[in-house]
Amino acid sequence: MAAEGGEEPAGAAPAAETGGLWEAFCAELQSPANILLICACLYIVYKLWVRQREERAPPPPAEPQLPPLKRQDFTLEQLKVYDGTEQCDGRVLVAVNYKVFDVTRGKRFYGPGGPYAAFAGKDASRGLATFSVEGVDDRFDDLSDLTPMQMESVREWEAQFTDRYVYVGKLLKPGERPSEYTDDEEASGTADSPRPDQPSGDKKTD
């Protein structure tokens, strides 16, 4: 029954005021600026939560250290075994300018799933010279059709690999016999001087 004298029922004014505040709050939430602000806050909270989980998670077990590889020369067929998979205990070898390097320490780059995984167990010379990781050929490449500038790039990459990784041996061309290495040569881990028959890249060989 309505109150006499047209007076509002007790509690009606607070209820109406609460409803108005809620409507105003909902209207504010629908503002594009506020929606972006809320999303940004939720994203920050999510990132903090993920970081805390990562910090609390135990670190992944370190990969076992592989023993040094004995100094030896490789054909392309022998080289392709060392692609970072289980068949070679995770070891990765890459050839640059007819020199084979053990790049296992850089497995995150050259191992399976890495940005340069296409070079694992391959001759990477042409790919490095042309800045391409696509279509690495399994056939022996004498690099004779590379330009002088591209050959200079190959030599620069060779120098970087020599500084960073362990030299293992030569990449053999078809029909070439492997060298016999002494214990001192195996322990040194340094690259041999360039082969006298190595193409310069200035012109094609016959």
Automatic annotation (TrEMBL):
It comes from Amphibalanus amphitrite (Striped barnacle). InterPro entries: Cyt_B5-like_heme/steroid-bd, Cyt_B5-like_heme/steroid_sf, MAPR/NEUFC/NENF-like. Belongs to the cytochrome b5 family. MAPR subfamily. The gene is Pgrmc2. Residues 174-206 are annotated as: Disordered. It comes from the Eukaryota. It holds the Pfam family Cyt-b5. This is Membrane-associated progesterone receptor component 2. Residues 74-172 form the Cytochrome b5 heme-binding domain. Keywords: Receptor. PANTHER family: IP06960P-RELATED, MEMBRANE-ASSOCIATED PROGESTERONE RECEPTOR COMPONENT-RELATED. GO terms for cellular component: endoplasmic reticulum; membrane.
